[in-house]
Amino acid sequence: MTGNATERGAAEEGPAEEDSAMEAEFDVVAGWTRDAVAALGPDHAVPAACRGTASPPALTWLGEACELAAGSRLVDAGAGVGGPAAFAAERFGVRPVLVDPMVGACRAARELFGFPTAAGTGDRLPLATGTADAVWCLGVLCTTEAKGALLAALHRVLAPGRPLGLFVLVAERQPVLDAPEGNSFPTHDELARALDVAGFDVVQQVAAADLPATPRSWQERIDRVERAVADAHGDDPRFGQAGEQQERMGRLLGSGAVAGWLLHATAR
Ligand SMILES: C[S@@+](CC[C@H](N)C(=O)[O-])C[C@H]1O[C@@H](n2cnc3c(N)ncnc32)[C@H](O)[C@@H]1O
């Protein structure tokens, strides 16, 4: 393991506000989400544990594009609470391995889905070279300045020809104002260059907005979990902090300043 949220906060000199906002959003809320799912029922787990605006159409597109095969090893870097990996396991029969820097997210994913998890950043994946059949990295590139190092690490764990599935929030125009703390969005050109430098060939990409709508039943399960979290923790300042992050992201997506893109690439 390469680090965890508590160690990060204590050991790094980075901006405390950014650290605590991202910890509220990705670490604290993860545990609250797990508790709400436990109360509401296991059918709420996968939708509530997708924290990167992933939807069934988006995850199905990625799984089909990457030709995920039953029994194959899918590494999810920045897996969060594990919803996308759980969807892939149910739909395609893969064996997920999860990595995320937030200890609370790793714990929630393990308790909800029982997958192997490791706490660590994606640029220092604690996995042997060439041992992944496929890698997903969804909604993560914009949360780190170390985009090149992250992509290089994803490339290292894939053998040549193996697939990478990405969900990336891309800056459609510059500058992107009032971004959530700790977020920076690549332009299309920057993303294409970073993938090429890391050793990936882009096979296909699609705007998330061009995929079919999220099924209402899926969204309703997310809404129920979010209401349960708000009822239990609405007075906690970290709830407000996480909500502020999500509202800022919502405004950027709503205005078109930032848009979600799905990419299928292969390692050279
Ligand atoms: C928007 S969430 C997406 C979570 C998950 N991929 C999903 O789609 O549900 C972003 C995730 O990236 C993780 N993260 C932040 N910085 C990271 C890094 N340098 N390497 C790997 N993951 C990182 C966060 O802890 C968080 O869980």
From TrEMBL:
Residues 1-22 are annotated as: Disordered. Residues 75-161 form the Methyltransferase type domain. GO terms for molecular function: methyltransferase activity. Gene3D superfamilies: Vaccinia Virus protein VP39 (3.40.50.150). Keywords: Methyltransferase, Transferase. GO terms for biological process: methylation. This is Methyltransferase domain-containing protein. It comes from Pseudonocardia humida.
